[in-house]
Amino acid sequence: MRIIIINGPNLNLLGKREPEIYGSETFEDLVPAWTERFPELEIEYFQSNHEGKLLDKLHEVGFKADGIILNAGAFTHTSIALRDAISAISTPVIEVHISNVHSREEFRHHSYISAVCAGIIVGFGTEGYALALRYFINQAKG
Ligand code: DQA
Fold first, then answer.
1. Fewer Cβ within 10 Å of end Cβ, the chain: N or C?
2. 55: helix, coil or strand?
């Protein structure tokens, strides 16, 4: 089963960026750890700070992959284009946020993409990605 993790803007700085909110781990460490933990999955990782590149990636994998885990970062709260891309593709998308966006500033409470995602995982730190991976494994088992 092929799962793509797509991270949006500023998530390349994980580990350095506001560690009191986002923790001190890096995706360079996390992705190999998840690959080891979930050997039944083929996990691909993509990050971009550019909205158009995120759209291109969704179009590229969105009819082929078995699942997409998307942390769109701040574009979550601004991008109708990302919402339209998620609606357009057939692969199910899980929206993940490391922090609990609902306990933060008001502008983070609204997501343009939640309504078109299969589910939402918010506020469990980077373990949220692992919960989403687990969901796809359980779904495949039926
Ligand atoms: C985030 C929450 C967003 O509001 C913020 O803009 C991010 C990270 C999270 O994972 O908690 O960049 O998506």
1. C
2. helix
Which one of 17, 25, 108, 129 would you pick to mutate in the ligand 1 pocket, going by the greatest count of ligand atoms within 8 A of its CB? 108
Enumerate long-range contacts of 131-138, CB under 8 Å, 24 or more apart. Answer: 132/67, 132/69, 132/94, 132/96, 133/3, 133/34, 133/38, 133/41, 133/43, 133/69, 134/38, 135/94, 136/1, 136/3, 136/41, 136/66, 136/67, 136/94, 137/1, 137/38, 137/40, 137/41
pLDDT for 60-111, tens place per residue?
999 999 999 999 999 999 999 999 999 999 999 999 999 999 999 999 999 9
**CA–CA separation, 78 vs 110, rounded Å?**
9
Closest C-alpha among 125, 131, 130 to residue 98: 125
pTM above 0.90, yes or no: yes
Residue 71, ligand 1, Cβ within 6 A: yes
In this predicted structure, the answer to whether residue 23 has a pLDDT above a threshold of 90 is no
Residue ranges per domain, the chain? Answer: 2-141
